[in-house]
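# step 3/5: fold
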Amino acid sequence: MAQRRAVWAVYAACRDGDDTVDELDGHAAQLGLDLWWTRVQGAFAGLPSDHPIDLALAWAAREYPIPLSAFAELHEGLRMDLRGHKYRSMDDLILYCRRVAGVVGFMIAPVSGYSGGERTLHAALMLGQAMQLTNILRDVGEDLTRGRVYLPSDLLADFHVSRADLDRGVVTPEYRALMRHLSALAREWYAEGRQGIPCLHGSARLAVATAARAYEGILDDLARNDFDNFGRRARVSGPRKLLMLPQAWWELRTAPAPLS
């Protein structure tokens, strides 16, 4: 119960920062994000505000060795969104995925408990990055309406896809090739991330395995839709979600020995 409460606190704090960036505009968003970061720092210092999320995070940070540095990286990732960061290379995109999602693994692993040391934390990082890249591939059309393009300009040029092509929302053969390339990269990250799941303690194993299966299922749906992510959002249907629990359980039963 304590672990579940701490995981909720971490999730709620992360979601609170993300919602601030997504739901506010301009100067209000910047002020909101600054306030969010001040609240997080206060919670870790044992001086939370009376906001329920801050009180919960302060308790979690006191009970478990959750690193404030992971929240600092998340803060920088959210600032990238506010600044309208231009993603010129894959390195830029990877850094963004690390900051807004990969580091969440660093927050959760100390709560669940884990073995395997740095190798397990690296696997958690890769799993978070895979999930964020999946989000980006799912939401290309939606992000365009907000003026956001996360696809690196260098990669767009390599695949002969222009910004005008994106704005037109036409799925060309070149665009499909780009989506296949990035989907394959995300799957590589999922495979690397799954290596750390057997090292997690207790119920966290099944929870993380199920989440990984659900998110990778979005890539399957995107492929079935012929990589049209402009007018239709890829998702996992209810019946397929129900099948993911036994699939995740079987993967854990047949997984190799935990990292050492």
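# step 4/5: annotate
Confidence is low (pLDDT under 50) at residues 236-255.
# step 5/5: archive (pending)
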